[in-house]
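Deviation from plan, reported transparently: zinc ion complex.
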Amino acid sequence: MSYADSNPGSADPFGTPPPRRSRLRRPLTVALAALVPGALLGWLAYGTLGGSGGGGAEGAGPATGAAPSILGSPGDGKDGASGDGGAGAGTSTAAAPGAAPLAGKVVVVDPGHNITNFEHTAEINRQVDIGTNRKECDTTGTSTNSGYAEARFTLDVAHRLRTLLQAQGATVKLTQDGDRPFGPCVDERARIGNAAHADAVVSLHADGAGAGQRGFHVILPASVHAGAADTRAIVGPSKELGKLIAGDFARATGTSPSNYVGDGTGLVTREDLGGLNLSTVPKVFIECGNMRDTKDAALLTSGAWRQDAAEGISEGIVSFLRG
Ligand SMILES: [Zn+2]
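Because the crystal trials were delayed, the predicted structure below was used instead.
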């Protein structure tokens, strides 16, 4: 995948604190949410997972046939490619004083790739053991056509998600925080979640598929048992976690499940991802959209949309952890 390391057109100064969502946005989101649940239940109940479609979580983009999009696209054009949504003063996501529903829970957030991976090609191309196979340590990730890197997207959403989960009382650990030259490798990313005895892990990504291929999908671990990989105990809870995140992500962002993998369910099971194969705790990946589609890119480059994305993912995790 190509990689661009700078994006002067983006008003998204890396490392700034995530802006709070403005309360002004809430009525729109609520209105959209009211429209969604019926269809959402439909596609969740639709049930069957979309096989092992080739999403771009750790490698090349997929190219499976188009599937019907169950939900509409009420998020189209929302905010446009206007960069960060600004530091609104809303506090709607903060937990009530004293309320800590996730106290004692540990969540590991894995921002996919690394902003400076491209400067360390030898290191990230090193093969690591993923149990079922050997695979590159890490990849550079994709970018939008205008050069907004997936690694910047994932780290930004990770920061927003961390803030939301901490407000619920969770202990949150990031696998990387822009604080290392490359990686971690996919096997280490998995081990970080395992060592933390995480109650849930989410790996954040955005895809690099073809133009016109749109929407999000959540990647679930397949049942694998080979070498150091044994996902048999986490397949069930990870599926539950993934379904909850997919539902809340659709509602919070107003975007539809992928029209190119998952048969409209927004759920895909894969057995080729080291980050899932080596996990011993419930874990999913989410591909939040397709960076190579201009309409999806307009959402992914919007700070306000990324806040919605983080809120959707957070709500799914909270639902999962509260049982
Ligand atoms: Zn990725």
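Residues 1-56, 59-93 have pLDDT under 50 and may be disordered. We consider this an acceptable substitute for the interim report.
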